[in-house]
Automatic annotation (TrEMBL):
EC code(s) of this entry: 3.6.1.52
GO molecular function: inositol-1,5-bisdiphosphate-2,3,4,6-tetrakisphosphate 5-diphosphatase activity; inositol-5-diphosphate-1,2,3,4,6-pentakisphosphate diphosphatase activity; phosphatase activity
Organism, as annotated: Gossypium anomalum
Gene3D superfamilies: Protein tyrosine phosphatase superfamily (3.90.190.10)
Catalytic reaction(s) noted: 3,5-bis(diphospho)-1D-myo-inositol 1,2,4,6-tetrakisphosphate + H2O = 3-diphospho-1D-myo-inositol 1,2,4,5,6-pentakisphosphate + phosphate + 2 H(+); 1,5-bis(diphospho)-1D-myo-inositol 2,3,4,6-tetrakisphosphate + H2O = 1-diphospho-1D-myo-inositol 2,3,4,5,6-pentakisphosphate + phosphate + 2 H(+); 5-diphospho-1D-myo-inositol 1,2,3,4,6-pentakisphosphate + H2O = 1D-myo-inositol hexakisphosphate + phosphate + H(+); 6-diphospho-1D-myo-inositol pentakisphosphate + H2O = 1D-myo-inositol hexakisphosphate + phosphate + H(+)
Domain of life: Eukaryota
Cellular component terms per the entry's GO annotation: cytoplasm
UniProt xrefs under InterPro entries: PFA-DSPs, Prot-tyrosine_phosphatase-like, Siw14-like, Tyr_Pase_AS, TYR_PHOSPHATASE_DUAL_dom
Name listed for the protein in its UniProt record: diphosphoinositol-polyphosphate diphosphatase
Positions with biased composition (Polar residues): 7-24
Annotated Tyrosine-protein phosphatase domain residues: 54-202
UniProt family annotation: Belongs to the protein-tyrosine phosphatase family. Atypical dual-specificity phosphatase Siw14-like subfamily.
Stretch list, region Disordered: 1-30
Length: 202
């Protein structure tokens, strides 16, 4: 399937550097936000810019992390986010919701339950739905996060990498870098069997 069918600017040859519910979306009326990120200036205020746990850039306009808290809000503002993809079923905290409202950020929530092996159930349909949002450049810049930024986020990013035609060893290397000692064979098996051809047009 051609890249254009996904309406995405993702690189297909880039090298490397998890009970479901329907997606819930919240969007607050807010002024338009300039999405250009200017990271050129460096002042003492930069010391207050604390990224969330396991934060990293995935691709142009796509970021990943663990659950952000109020200490991370100043840092997140520098990303000029358009949307957040939240992969947990728990309600978003009030402080985070207010942050989204004040910054004009849309929240897409996918209620993927947290499991421990061997009782792992990764909802493939939910992953596909979330991927369509990630691929839509209208949602960029976007932050993908779960609780710790390891398993659910790792599975979603791993499936994205398959769409980018990464080899499995590179997909697994990236997953393991974030999951570390908590890496799950079931997650990696899910990514291995994920069929990018079944995603379909957005």
């Amino acid at each position: 399937m051609k890249e254009d069918s996904y309406n995405t600017k993702l690189s297909l040859n880039q090298q490397p550097a998890g009970s479901q519910q329907m997606c819930r979306t919240t969007e607050e009326d807010a002024p338009a936000v300039d999405h250009h990120v200017d990271m050129s200036s460096s002042t003492s205020d930069d010391l207050n810019f604390i990224p969330p746990l396991n934060f990293a850039m995935v691709d142009n306009g796509i970021f990943r992390s663990g659950f952000p808290d109020s200490a991370n809000f100043s840092f997140l503002q520098t990303l000029k986010l358009t949307s957040i993809i939240y992969l947990c079923p728990e309600p978003y905290p009030e402080a985070n919701t207010e942050f989204l409202k004040s910054n004009g950020i849309k929240l897409f929530q996918f209620g993927i339950e947290s499991y421990k092996e061997p009782f792992v159930n990764i909802p493939e349909d939910t992953i596909r739905e979330a991927l369509r949002l990630v691929l839509d450049v209208r949602n960029h810049p976007v932050l993908i996060h779960c609780n710790r930024g390891k398993h659910r986020t790792g599975c979603l990013v791993g499936c994205l990498r398959k769409l980018q035609r990464w080899c499995l060893s590179s997909v697994f290397d990236e997953y393991q870098r974030f999951a570390a000692a908590k890496a799950r064979v079931s997650d990696q098996r899910f990514m291995e069997l994920f069929d990018r051809r079944m995603l379909g047009p957005a």
